[in-house]
Amino acid sequence: MLWPKAVRAAVKVGADREIVTAYPYRNACPTSVWSKLIDSAEESITFAGYTNYFLWQEQSRLPDRLKAKASNGCSVRFLVGDPDSDVTRRREEVEGVPLTVGTRIRITLDALQRMGDVPGVEARFSDEHIALSVFMFDDEMLVTPHLSSLLGHESPMLHLRRLGDDGLYDRFAGHVAALWEVGRPVNG
Description:
The chain is of the alpha+beta class. 38% of the residues lie in helices and 21% in strands. An eight-stranded mixed β-sheet has the order 1-7-6-5-2-3-4-8, sandwiched between helices.
């Protein structure tokens, strides 16, 4: 055999080669990973989490960092749920926590409003991604499939890196692109 067993065990050669790391919980991913992905992105950043509220608490100076990214030509997009939709209300009933889904969405909307009108920073509403959060940074992404009645930080997360056409990265990126196309502008 060309590849000794030890090498085959250490080098990914199958369909899972795009998986950089798997975390049992979203909050098990170090904030430094998020910071590195945000700060190293040059072309596009997409936060397609239903609320995205945790970003504002966990990432220092996020508004300034995103404004700097946008001013250097990086597209920054937020896809959030509609805080007043039936989907959001149903999810609040399932979660049954004091910090409601609608409130968490409004935290993101407030943070975006405080940033002001920044060319290159856009936000749209979509209720179609409530069970899946996808955070994209050029050719890397963090994906959280939400489990049952658990909160986002309690669900698992995958760190993916795009290595070829029609892999895991492209499948999730295509999903987000389709949602973005039919999303409703937040300020419109």
